[in-house]
C-alpha cells in the first residue's frame, strides 16, 4: 500500500531505521519488497541526497558525451539514480536489483532500457565483461545488502577506462562495514586494476533515523554523513 499523506518524520525514521537494523540478506530483500511503494516518499522525507551526489560526481568526471554512454545502475531500487542520470543527459540505462518489488517501481519510471533481477554477492551480474562505460552502486553498500567481496564484479562489467561510482554511509553504525569496504577498494587499487579519482566526504547525507546513528563529532545536527567514491578502471596496454 502506498504511503498515506500526513505520515510523520518519526514514522519514516522508524521504518528506515528498521531497514538499517536488518543484517541478513533474505529478510532485507523481503523488507525492500514491502517498502517499495513507499520508498521514494520516505527517503525524500529524510532528505536523502546520495543519488544526486553520486551522479554529480560521475557526470563531472565523465570523459565523453552522456547520451553515448551505456550505464549500469546496480541495486537500482526504484530508479532514483536513473532519474538523476537522465536529468544530466544519460539515456542508455540498465538496472539490476535483488528486490522484485523495487524493480516493479523502477519499471514504472520507464527510464531503463533493461532491468534484471540479480542479487549481487550471490549471483554474477547478467552482462559480459567490459560492457559498460560507467557502473554506479548507490545506497547498497552496508551490512545485509551487497558484500564487499562483490566489488570486483562491478569492475568485470566495466569497460577499460570506464568509471565506477560507489557510496556508503560513514555514520557510527556503518563504520565497521566502511572499514572493510575501504580495505577492498584499496586492495584493488594496489593490484592496479583501477585508480581512485575521488573520495568525497559529505556531512548532510540524510537525516538520522535515531540518536545512535549520529556521532559525537557530527557537524550538521540531525544529519548523518556519507562518502562518494569514484574510480577509473585501468586500461590494459
Automatic annotation (TrEMBL):
Pfam families according to UniProt: Methyltransf_11
Gene Ontology terms, MF aspect: S-adenosylmethionine-dependent methyltransferase activity
The Methyltransferase type domain, residue ranges: 72-165
Superkingdom of the source species: Eukaryota
Stored CDD domains: AdoMet_MTases (cd02440)
InterPro entries in UniProt: Methyltransf_11 (IPR013216), SAM-dependent_MTases_sf (IPR029063)
Name by which UniProt lists this protein: Methyltransferase like 27
Amino acid at each position: 500500500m502506498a504511503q498515506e499523506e500526513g505520515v510523520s518524520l518519526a514514522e519514516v525514521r522508524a521504518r528506515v531505521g528498521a531497514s538499517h537494523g536488518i543484517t541478513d540478506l533474505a529478510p532485507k530483500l523481503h523488507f525492500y519488497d514491502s517498502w517499495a511503494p513507499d520508498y521514494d516518499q520516505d527517503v525524500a522525507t529524510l532528505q536523502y541526497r546520495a543519488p544526486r551526489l553520486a551522479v554529480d560526481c560521475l557526470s563531472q568526471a565523465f570523459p565523453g558525451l552522456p547520451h553515448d554512454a551505456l550505464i549500469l545502475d546496480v541495486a537500482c531500487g526504484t530508479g532514483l539514480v536513473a532519474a538523476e542520470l537522465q536529468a544530466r543527459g544519460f539515456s542508455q540505462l540498465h538496472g539490476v536489483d535483488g528486490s522484485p518489488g523495487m524493480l516493479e517501481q523502477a519499471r514504472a519510471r520507464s527510464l531503463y532500457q533493461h532491468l534484471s533481477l540479480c542479487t549481487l554477492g550471490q549471483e554474477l551480474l547478467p552482462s559480459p565483461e567490459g560492457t559498460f562505460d560507467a557502473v554506479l552502486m548507490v545506497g547498497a553498500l552496508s551490512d545485509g545488502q551487497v558484500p564487499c567481496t562483490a566489488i570486483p564484479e562491478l569492475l568485470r562489467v566495466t569497460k577499460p577506462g570506464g568509471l565506477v561510482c560507489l557510496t556508503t554511509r560513514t555514520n557510527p553504525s556503518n563504520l565497521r562495514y566502511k572499514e572493510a569496504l575501504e580495505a577492498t577498494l584499496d586492495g584493488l587499487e594496489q593490484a592496479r586494476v583501477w585508480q581512485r579519482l575521488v573520495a568525497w566526504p559529505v556531512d548532510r547525507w540524510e537525516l538520522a533515523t535515531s540518536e545512535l546513528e549520529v556521532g559525537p563529532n557530527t557537524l550538521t545536527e540531525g544529519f548523518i554523513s556519507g562518502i562518494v567514491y569514484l574510480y577509473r578502471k585501468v586500461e590494459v596496454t
